[in-house]
Amino acid sequence: MEEDEIKVDEPIVEEQENIEEEVDYSTVPWFEKPEAEWTTDDVAEAKKAIKTAAAQKTHWKNKFEKVSNQVETKKEEKKPEIKKTNIEQVNSSEIVELSRLAARGYSDEEMELLKDIKNLKGLNNLTEAIASPLFKANKDSKEAEAKKEKAQLGASNRSSIFREGQEPTKEDLKKAWLGK
Fold it and tell me: What is the domain partition of the chain in residue ranges?
């Protein structure tokens, strides 16, 4: 036999491109189905979801506007009014004078008093205010008050060598007297 005459039984293959698989969409939620497969119930669910989303959007938009208005009114209420009379303008010469007074040992309280005296009397600089009787009287009264506080008797500095309820021995007395 010749090779041309030999026939091999080969299966006949049909074109499988035209064959489509059918999918059961009965258990799939509406938003995962293609629109062509939607039922009337799926359409109703989609409309309901759209209405819910729109209602949520308006709810949160209104809530945001309400809260932002409250924050704005609180900001306006809390803004302190700046009074121009409270703002002190300090020039460079006054800064130099204040630093010199601080170097001399004047306290912040005394420097504020000197500024007030300068402004009240219309003096040119703070060193002129030092010579004023107001400042001298204030300084003298502060010094007298400090001397009074220093002159007061403090608490008893009883020796820690002696214990309560016991009579001191000769050795304890020597330690207390000699400080050893």
Answer: 30-70, 92-144
